[in-house]
Amino acid sequence: MLAESKQLKQTTAAEMDREQVICAVLEEVRPNLKRDGGDCQLVAIDGTKIMVKLTGACVLCKLSAATLEGIQARLIEKLGEFVRLIPVAGAPTAPY
Fold first, then answer.
1. What angle do CA 67, 69, 71 make, to 5 degrees?
2. At what angle do helices 64-79 and 2-35 cross, to 10 degrees?
3. How many CA atoms lie within 13 A of 56 on its CB side?
4. H/E element holding 48?
5. Terminal CA-CA length for the chain
6. Closest CA to 25 of 47, 46, 42, 5
7. Which terminus of the chain has fewer Cβ atoms in its 10 Å neighbourhood, N or C?
């Protein structure tokens, strides 16, 4: 039972570290997006799926797909694992 509790704490710590890396990557790109009148908000993390909401000028931008690909590549580089960045429309503002 103690081993299960210890493993649960390790998993939770690893998930928190992973979430911090994801938030840090989004914070890195945020100034560039804001300079162009847009933004990107973290909505949810579900395993290897990372859901984000584009706002402002990014919503209608023809280059938003390229922006998302760049962010995804940066996330893969920082996390050391394959993740998929998924744009979500109309999602509520997340607590992240």
1. 70
2. 140
3. 12
4. none
5. 32
6. 42
7. N
Q: Which helix (H) or strand (E) holds 87?
A: strand 84-87
pLDDT digits (tens, 9 = 90+) for 16-36: 789 999 999 999 999 999 999
3-state helix, strand, coil in the chain (%, to 5): 50, 20, 25
* Dist CA 47 CA 22 (whole Å): 12
Cα separation, 67 vs 12, whole angstroms: 30
Q: What is the dihedral of CA 12, 73, 52, 48, to 10 degrees?
A: -40
Q: Which domains does the chain possess?
A: 2-87 (3.30.300.130)
Q: What is the side-by-side strand order in the sheet with 38-46?
A: 38-46, 49-56, 84-87
**For the residues 55-80, what does the mean pLDDT come to?**
93
Q: Which two tokens stand for residue 8?
A: 């649960």
Predicted TM-score (pTM) of this structure: 0.78
